[in-house]
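help with these tokens:
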Amino acid sequence: CMMHQTEPISAKGHKELVKPRMLALGEEETRPYMSLNCYALGWNVENYHGETVINHGGATNGFRCNMMYLPRLKFGIVVFGNCNTAYTPNEKTSWALVDELLWIPLEKRYDWDAAGKEDLAKEHLETVEELYPNLPEVRIPLALPLETYAGEYTHAGYGTMVVECQDGKLQVDATDRTWRFKMSLEHVSGEFFMAEKFDVDNHYKDRIRAQFRLGADGTPRSLGVE
């Protein structure tokens, strides 16, 4: 439908869907041989070696997908991966097919393997030192006893997280929502913590930063989770 601009979308609708609206700037948007990423209506629009490429990915727990097409050549690709880290191989597969289609010389192709390793290294920080590279030599103790940080923390977009103090750690059971997870908070320094987040549905573990903030009355008022 998108490639051939067919119904049920009108000709004007098709034109509007892929009209660039804004620049999506980031480290990954400065790849060699590729223009800046322009965002349209639900589609990314890029120029690669002079060819327009329209694409977008999608994700949910344990699943990643990537869809793209080259409108001039009427060539489309859809790639699915059934794990949280499938984004990189999905991208590599898609763009490798584009490289083959366009007969791009090897020396002018983007190194997706190197980029993938770099992205994974940034995304999956494991140790306290990786999460907090500027920690003081002498860690700062908590301002309050650990159990004081237990309570309910609410955000309009993310709902309520109930923090409980169990077995000497702060624990969160967030299995009451669509993307279910459990989380334990380990003190690092000051009001900063390392949170180990466990996705119940796909058994994916991640370590991320977390921070409590105290109010003027000296009691915990908010919790930030990366």
Q: What stands out?
A: The longest helix spans residues 87-102.
